Automatic annotation (TrEMBL):
PANTHER family the UniProt entry points to: ENOYL-[ACYL-CARRIER-PROTEIN] REDUCTASE (PTHR43159), ENOYL-[ACYL-CARRIER-PROTEIN] REDUCTASE [NADH], CHLOROPLASTIC (PTHR43159:SF2)
The EC number(s) this enzyme carries: 1.3.1.9
Keyword NAD assigned: yes
Name of protein: Enoyl-[acyl-carrier-protein] reductase [NADH]
Catalytic site positions: 146, 156
Signal peptide: none
Pathway annotation from the record: Lipid metabolism; fatty acid biosynthesis
GO terms of molecular function: enoyl-[acyl-carrier-protein] reductase (NADH) activity
Annotated source species: Limisphaera ngatamarikiensis
Length: 256
């Protein structure tokens, strides 16, 4: 019997096979969860469809631009129609304009700031609000953060501010949704070579730095992030909510 047998989940943010979201989705599915997926825009549709197809042709795949409330409503209307309930939600969505991830944070434009906060932080609030009515049996909402929310990481810039807002949102959502037994947590992952990460200037240097300075002297693997995502979705984490769990080979504890 799998840890997530009988659980229904929806996954936002798979871009390709290297996505952290895909690693967590695979871990969830391996323990019995039945999953639906969304994709952002036609450019990513084929990649995501190919991956999702490995779970079977009946797997639900839906378009969703998280900045459009009507898209979000359409996703959860389809979830309601297909399953009638929901237990798991994975939010792995973040974006800032490329120019905002170069140079100085001081030079972040008002529009780049708005976009980064809307896509990367407010989207969790919007998705949780839409999901909550379906989580009648309790549930687990999981998002992905990064150490740049807590400390300055050169070139992470406005995304660090967005991740700080995301982590605060986790705490407030955990408080609001706790009475209906819905838990909300974040994984703060060490650097992983994903599509999003490659947009950050100096990313390869970051990988080398983590490997040299973390207590475990290595970088985290997608499979390890998947395992943590599985734990947080399972009954083993039934008393854990509002937390940011660092999965970074210990880098977060280091002073220098």
């Amino acid at each position: 019997m799998g840890l997530l047998d009988g659980k229904i989940g929806v996954v936002f943010g798979v871009a390709n096979k290297r996505s952290i979201a895909w690693a967590i989705a695979r871990a969830w599915a391996s323990e019995g969860a039945q999953l639906a997926f969304t994709y952002q825009g036609e450019r990513l549709k084929d990649n995501v469809a190919e991956l999702v197809g490995t779970f079977g042709p009946e797997t639900l795949l839906m378009p969703c631009d998280v900045t459009r409330d009507e898209d979000i409503q359409a996703v959860f209307a389809q979830m309601q129609q297909r399953y009638g309930k929901l237990h798991l939600l994975l939010h792995s969505v973040a974006y800032a304009p490329r120019e905002a991830l170069e140079g100085r944070f001081l030079d972040t434009s008002r529009e780049a700031f708005r976009i980064a906060l809307d896509v990367s932080a407010y989207s969790l609030v919007a998705l949780a609000r839409a999901a909550a009515p379906l989580m009648t049996e309790g549930g687990s909402i999981l998002t992905l953060s990064y150490y740049g929310a807590e400390k300055v990481v050169p070139h992470y810039n406005v995304m660090g501010v967005a991740k700080a807002a995301l982590e605060a949102s986790v705490r407030y959502l955990a408080y609001d949704l706790g009475p209906q037994r819905v838990r909300v947590n974040a994984i703060s992952a060490g650097p992983v070579n994903t599509l999003a990460a490659r947009g950050i200037s100096g990313f390869l240097e970051m990988l080398r730095h983590y490997e040299a300075k973390s207590p475990l002297r290595r970088n985290v693997s997608p499979e390890e992030l998947g395992a943590t995502g599985l734990f947080l979705a399972s009954d083993g984490a039934a008393a854990i909510t509002g937390q940011v769990i660092y999965v970074d080979c210990g880098y977060q504890i280091m002073g220098m």
